[in-house]
Each structure stands twice: as structure tokens, then as C-alpha cells.
Amino acid sequence: MKKNNIYISLMVFILAFVTSCQDAIDVLPKDEITESSALETVDDIEDAVTGVYAAISGSNLISWNSRFSDNLKKGAGNRGQGVQVHTWSIVTSTNEPDGLWRNMYLVINRANRILAVIDNIPTNSSADASKINVFKGELLTIRALMHFDLARLFSTSYTDLNALAVPYVDFPVVLEKPARNTLGEVYTNIENDLIEASSLISSSSRSNIYVTPDVIPALKARVALYKNTSADNTVAINNATTVINNNSISSISNMPSVWTDDSEQGVIFKLKRTPTNFAVGTLFTDTNGDVFFSPAKQLMDLYTSNDARKSSYFASSDEVGKYLGTSSVFGLNDIKMFRVAEQYLIRAEAYARENMLTEAAADYNMVRKNRISSYTDESFANKTEALNKIREERRRELAYEGHRFFDLKRDGLPVTRLADDCAPNSFACDLPASSHKFTLPIPQTEIFANPNIADQQNPGYN
Q1: What is 1-67+86-210+435-462's CATH number, 1.25.40.390, 1.20.1050.90, 3.30.360.10, 3.30.70.580?
Q2: Whole-number Å distance between alpha carbons of 339 and 83
Q3: N or C: which end of the chain has fewer CB within 10 A?
Q4: What are the residues whose beta carbons fall under 8 Å from the beta carbon of 29, sequence distance 6 or more?
Q5: What is the DSSP letter of 164?
Q6: Which pTM value belongs to this model?
Q7: Which architecture does CATH list for 214-413?
Q8: pLDDT by residue (tens digit) across 123-150?
Q9: Phi then psi for 171, rounded to 5 degrees?
């Protein structure tokens, strides 16, 4: 890991507490002592696991996906916020790739430091033993998720198993300087972590602000979709089906309340945000009303007037409305990491790839009938039509949730902005699918600090 991460791992280990399973996540520093003495009880482990959740940004992927892709245009009040990413002026020293790398490996290292000692924690009852299993399963799932997100950002391919991805780190980093693993090795480690996690979290009474049993198949389905083989399509279908059978999609009347945090229908896993956390809505609009980024006209035109998402996702033609926050804290909303609607669209796409068009249409229609009033079911004439319509529906349903950049990249598609949407930066209207900028550069700080990665920079950034 980079110098800063090594320094962090040698500093005070951040622990946290939870006042209740629904309450705010507050991180409190403890004394500067090693894990072997700091983590001695089940309660200590619970505090430390909460600290791992507290470190997950969530908003960083929303920022990158939204600003890089075709879902936003530069706002009238933009004072330079996110413009480098929006105009694809990306080099090895660009802050955003460095921040993504830094945050995700911080989360991984926190998880690994707990996993290194968790098996030695004494348990005095079967309830304690069960808790330890659940905590371990949650950490393994988080570790898998963070590595998958890193691979999605920093690997040139999602299907070439020999492509360089990222170091898969399954130990606490102190002075080690790991080299990049191949994509195939990263996938194998993700799958191994999730297999072990499944055996540990067969049931859990914890709420959806933690990893529950349904998060594991949801992540398995997402990973399998990216791998894009016939066998993996089956894996995606089976795992998405598990999640769908256990959960209800948010209804047309209830869906708007999901984005005000008044409802959790259809939300499998979310990051609980409190006034001490970054307000995700301020990625788009400042607290003083200055609009940094407005919704792209191209995106807004995809919604019909009877689509409930239109009024929920857009406050106006100039303002993103998905994260308006509360009356007391503008822009502060929980970050939805996994939703049932995504699982329907994952399964629809996997069905379509296997030319199971009737099944694909049924899942596609399930999402749309729960968003569009007086909706009439559609059918697909062929595989190409099915995949194109499902991709477009993903764009509608998952807008500003951290998916669009990845969808374009995995389907080999360019960023193509309308003239209206790129008018403030007319030089950044089109980015070809062949551009090396669809893969982020390994941060320059990591290149300098880690000799084992120094000659493994991504193409186009040397």
C-alpha cells in the first residue's frame, strides 16, 4: 500500500461504537495499543467492525461514475469542483484516483487487522460464538467488495483473466509492498472470501446498515455479471434469484420515500449517514445553492412524465434531486449500496445473454411497472434489443448510484454527450470506448512508494 496507508496502519487503530443498530456510526479513537491487546473481547470486535463500516466512503464511486459519464453537465455554480474528471483530464497525480485507492485500501487494512486476531477472541457462550462468526463474515464480504470495486476501477478488462488488476491484500499491511494481482486472481480471492462469508452468516438479526446474508448473493450476482461467461450468467441468475425471493422491490408509491430515507423497501444494504459524515448531495449542489453539476438533458429525456423516478431523481432541470437530505442537513442521505431493483436488472441481463428473452422481459417489466404508472408490459424481439433496453433501464433506475461508468466500460461503449450537456466544455463531448481513461491510473504516490508496482502502471499513463 502507499506510504499514507502504511502510516495509518501504524497509527492509532480506530475503533467505534454503535448506540443502537439503527443509530449513527461514530468513530472514537482508543489508546495507541496493538490489536492483540486492544481486541480482547467480543465487544471490542464489535466496536472495531463498526469502525470498518464507518470508513467506507460510498460517495466516492457515486462521484466518479456521475462526473465521468454522460449523466451530468457542468452546473452554473461550478467553481472547478470535479472538472478534471468531468473533462477526462486525468493523469497519475489526479486527486480522485488517489482518493479512491486510499479509501478502499484503508477499509481493507482495517478489516484485515481485525481478521488477523478474531479467531483468538474468547467466547463465553454460543451467542458470543455466533456473533464472532457474523462479524468475520461481514469483514470478509467487505474485503471482497472493496477489492472488486478497486478492480473495476484500475483493471483494463473485466473479462481478460490475465489482465493486471490490483493487489489482493488479505493480511494487515505494515511494511509490505504487494504487486498487482491478475484479474483472475482477484476474482478467485473474492469468490473464496464470499464462500467463507456464506458459511459464517447463515442468519443475522442485524439491520441493513450491516452486511446481512442477502448481501453476499447480491455481490456474487454483480461480480458474475462482469465476468460475462455462460457459466457466470447462470451464477448471476441463481444468486439474484436468491435475493429477489427474499426481498420485495420498492413499489411505485413507496419508491420516492426510499430517497428521503423514510422507507427501506427494496434496500438490501446501505451506509448510514449522519451529520458527521460527508453529505453525498453536495457532490451536485452546494449547501448555499450553487449547482456544481446539473442533470444531463440526455438522461432526463429518458423518463416519461408518468415515471415516478423523474420527480424523485431530479429536483428540476438544473438540480439532481436524489440526495436532497433533510431540512436540517442539506444533501445528507444514506447511501444505497445494493438494491433489489439492481438484482432484477442483473438477472434480466444474464437471461438476455443466454437468449432467454421471455424471462429477461419479465424482470425488465417488473422494474418498470413499479416505476411507471399505467405501464404496459414489453417484449424483446431479439437479444440485441433486450441488452440495449436493459442497459438503458439500468441507466434510468441506477442513476447517480455509482454504476454508469462501469456499465459503459464493461459493454465497450463511449461517453457521448449531447451538445447541450457539454456546452460549458465543448472539448469534452465524446470519449471513445478505446480511450485508456476508462481505466484509472495507479496513483503516483503508490508508484513512488511501492517498487513492486512501479513498473505496473496502466497503459496510457507512463
Answers
A1: 1.25.40.390
A2: 29
A3: C
A4: 12, 14, 15
A5: B
A6: 0.92
A7: Alpha Horseshoe (1.25)
A8: 999 999 999 999 999 999 999 999 999 9
A9: -145, 160
